[in-house]
Amino acid sequence: MPAVVLIGAQWGDEGKGKATDLLGPRLDYVVKFNGGNNAGHTVVIDGDKYALHLLPSGILTPGVIPVIANGVVIDLEVLFEELDGLSRRGVDVSNLRVSANAHIITPYHRVLDRVTERFLGKRQIGTTGRGIGPTYADKINRAGIRVQDLFDKNILQQKVEGALEQKNHLLLKVYNRRAIGVTEVVDELLSYVERLRPLVADTSLLLHQALNRGETVLFEGGQATMLDVDHGTYPFVTSSNATSGGAVTGSGIAPNRIDRIIAVVKAYTTRVGAGPFPTELCDEWGEFLSERGHEFGTTTGRRRRTGWYDAPITRYCARINGVTDFVLTKLDVLTGLERIPVCVAYEVDGNRRDEVPVSQSDFHHATPIYQEFPGWTEDISGVRTFHELPVNAQNYVLALENMGGTRISAIGVGPGREQIIVRHDLLG
After folding, report:
1. 223 marked as binding residue
2. Is 379 labeled as catalytic in the residue annotation?
3. Which of 177, 197, 217 is the last residue of a domain?
4. Which of 32, 103, 109, 139 is catalytic?
5. Using omega within 30 degrees of 0 as the cis cutoff, is the peptide bond preceding 235 cis?
6. Statement to judge: residues 145 and 37 lie in one domain
């Protein structure tokens, strides 16, 4: 049975939760391997909407063991708020496992994130202000606090003291903010220990043993390829590796255990926050996609920037991640358009570029070269097989598949769990 990586192909919000939910009954484990509560998955089950921010979306499927792996940064307040919210709605959350090596978002990380972003002014990156970046920075600087540190008060005290000795100077002298007390941070973190203790495990070993038993493990990425800290539109990116390689380092499994890599891509393009976006629409068509697609962030509520489908980005995603299957979502949003433009290349300084420019400056100034496809007017929300789609919708999907160079194995035609067309077995 396979180890499967599921990632976003664009700038996030592609509908990865829906793809996870589609596979849910065939999964044994679902693993979150990067990011924190700075991104969200929305899953609709029998008309009920579930918005998840930190938890793997597999937690909604009975029998699946959800895992928060070592590559994630954890806000404990958010973690237990989400768990309590799901429990009140009758969801069994008792199977959750949390890596002892995952890093903790502290109160000072959240403060630093917000004041730093304000300090940047017009150069703001567009972070969520939830402390993700500063926590990853401490991790790389070897000054982070891990889950396991909470179970040794002396170590925790020493680490918080060491961190605040530097950060309070920054808060006081640069940002003109009050200093943060060591005791208040330590006490807040220790208040979660008893609830956290039964959830903590050596998740790398847990997943290794599961794969040896032939069980199916899905590694669910937060954010998306174009937000990857190494391979995205830097510096307008997240602070972790959201690509398939991040599943290996972020969970502690070996690269040769991965069998399939599934990328989720919208039938158009969106992004949240600042940064280049060649196909962005600041006109009535942008409004159309935003309203029809309900393009507001699951975590932040921010309105997403919208644009037409960008084929070079999809090809880039396929190459960087080694994609075996694409899941195309929100095809139904395009219903009613007479013509649907697709970006097939860029123009940069008068020259055609068929691939994503390596230079950030070139990408920022890239002008889309569009090819238009005829649209359709028929309601496709109830369609469940590819051949039932209007011919123009079929042709649109096949054109995107050809441009991406990788098969489109499933197509979302609505927000509901059942509103999906399966063309190829995602696990086969």
Report:
1. yes
2. no
3. 197
4. 139
5. yes
6. no
